[in-house]
Amino acid sequence: MPHFDLIIVGTGVAGRTAAEEAAAAGLRTAVVDRRPFGGTCALRGCEPKKILFAAAEVPLRLRAQLGHGVAGDARLAWPELIAFKRRFTDDLPQAFEHSMRDAGQTVVRGVARFTSPATMDIDGVEYSADAFFLGTGAKPMPLEMPGADLLVDSECFMELDTLPERVAFVGGGFISFEFAGIAAAAGAKPIILHRSSQPLRAFDPDLVALLIAQYAEWGVDVRLDTPVASVRHQGAGFAIDLSDGGVVECDLAVHGAGRVPDLDALELEVADVAFDHHGVDVDTSMRSTTNERVWAAGDSAGAGPPLSPVGISQARVALRNIVSPGSATWDPPVVPSSVFSQPPLAAVGLSESAARERGLDAEIKFVDTSQWLSSRRVGLTHTGAKTLVDRATGQLLGAHVLGHGAEEVANVFALAIAQKMTAEELKAVIWAYPTASSEIVYMV
């Protein structure tokens, strides 16, 4: 039976980070994936999505600034855009495999499943290891409704050779808002169907309401309190049956109702690994609480938000502890996140509801920034910001931003919160002007 110091399952950002750390530590390592090496973020998620997002900004910005010194027409040439995206993704799997082999690691393609707490079968060959690292990522959340299999996921959306006119998104999460904005820029008529009154639940509801208003101007129809009952074929397209008896007809139906850890194939029960719908149950060292040989990070771990930088950070912590037990813990002071909608929506630190739940006396400032120069000069009509400051200490507790450059402004706020800066200290900084960050002094 082949034996390794470490077997890494999954080659997304967490798995690749683990492989890099393992190579640096000189561990005898096998790296396993059942799909092309590279994982979701690099091949079918964050990075290719950002390519489409950047292209979508152009026609939407032009549309917003017509009559304000800008003339002409721009549209997304969808086939060319997808071909451009593939220039970034097609060669990556081979490059990742080569880098691992060059580092002396064994590359194994196949489906991995535990056969005991210390052994794993990969396509009929059994392996043993001193440690196992799980970075298998996430998959679309299973939907218990008739016709759920007719929905395409975001990966399929980014591989479409042509984009149809009527695109319906089931669910009001990241994927729906990001890809609906892209679809609108391509000339489609997107519809988002969300079952409750609050989409994008991880973000400030006041700013989400502004985003929905902006989307109405872009031609995106966001329907709240609209549960979907079923999906069925209708002619060359689809019919989405709503719980209230209504029907939405579309040419393409997209799953946008969230993702869950992709752990089913591993047969974790056989390895005595505790897990739930959030992922593997881990301690602060990223080690399984029930099997000391198993470690997990990113979407596979039930700790922290499902974001690529979180997976990278957790993987580094896990590998340091595999090499030197007890040497690192995962306890970040703050984690910023962004929705690459049009415009971007970002958040960092505590939300208004979280501050209330903790009993904090926070000064909450909400500002509609739609008339600020940073919004008007790019033609945005619905933008805003909300900040929370501790009344006792003056320290910044949270910041939420919707607008051009919001994702970069959130990074500035993240640094301020991590360094326990007060609002007054943040306002005292001299910023490059006129930039999105220079308006921070008016947000706090």
In short:
With 444 residues, the chain is an alpha/beta fold. 32% of the residues lie in helices and 25% in strands. The protein folds into three domains: 3-46 and 83-139 and 260-323, 3-Layer(bba) Sandwich (FAD/NAD(P)-binding domain), CATH 3.50.50.60; 148-257, 3-Layer(bba) Sandwich (FAD/NAD(P)-binding domain); 343-443, FAD/NAD-linked reductase, C-terminal dimerisation domain (Enolase-like, domain 1), CATH 3.30.390.30.
Question: How would you describe this protein?
Answer:
- The termini are far apart.
- This protein has helices spanning 13-25, 39-44, 46-65, 78-89, 92-102, 154-157, 174-185, 205-218, 308-323, 352-357, 373-376, 406-418, 423-427, 440-443; strands spanning 3-9, 29-33, 106-109, 112-116, 119-122, 125-134, 138-140, 166-170, 189-193, 221-223, 228-234, 237-242, 247-250, 252-255, 259-261, 275-276, 279-280, 294-296, 337-339, 345-349, 362-368, 384-390, 396-402.
- The radius of gyration is 23 Å and the shape is globular.
- The chain is built from 14 helices and 23 strands.
- Helix 3 packs antiparallel against helix 4 (78-89) and helix 3 packs across helix 7.
- By secondary structure, it is of the alpha/beta class.
- The protein has 3 domains: 3-46 and 83-139 and 260-323, FAD/NAD(P)-binding domain, CATH 3.50.50; 148-257, 3-Layer(bba) Sandwich (FAD/NAD(P)-binding domain), CATH 3.50.50.60; 343-443, Enolase-like, domain 1 (2-Layer Sandwich), CATH 3.30.390.30.
- Helix content is 32%, strand content 25%.
- The strands form 6 sheets. Strands 1, 2, 3, 4, 5, 6 and 18 form a 7-stranded mixed β-sheet that branches. It has a 5-stranded antiparallel β-sheet with strand order 19-20-23-22-21, with helices on both faces. A 4-stranded parallel β-sheet has the order 10-9-8-14.
- The mean pLDDT is 96.
